[in-house]
Amino acid sequence: MSEAESGAGRPAPEALAAPGPQPAGPSRAGQRYAAGIYGTIITGAILATSGPRRDAITLTVSIIFTLMVYWLAEQYSELIGEHLSGGRLPGWRQIGRGLARTWPMVTASLFPLLALELASAIGASQQRSALAGLNVAVITLVVYGWLAGRAAALRRGQQLLIALVTALIGVAMIALKVLVLTHLH
Hints:
Largest sheet: none
Low-confidence stretches: 1-24
Structural class: mainly alpha
Radius of gyration: 21 Å
Number of helices: 8
Helix content: over 70%
Shape: globular
Strand content: under 5%
């Protein structure tokens, strides 16, 4: 068999994809979904451990500020890890792209916080309002898990597994909330 027939000497298909350096690591969509999962977990953890004396607005504001601090700290540590080892500082464009790509860490709290505020507005107790937000956080986790699996081109069974694992994280947060409600407050 000749070299041309065997494919030897030809570049690999991924080498033909695009000229220039190829991005390493997860896809942009994957990074957004990962940031969304992380933000939802932080939101749920705060909702799960919130005390009975925190009204919905105070809790919402504290969650948003906490997420923004985590978001900025995570991006700062990423930039330090990626760029300083090469002896150079990142440019403003790189910083902006990184911040935009991981902004779902903050926006993932939208639906859980809307549920928290809506439950409070219709007269639910502070604990029940937090539990409503936490339930929506679990649903949000499942959706992000499913979408992350889809973005990674996983088969349906694998997507389901990812969604179930993220749901289990949510169930653990609900269990934590029940523990906090019954034993710590």
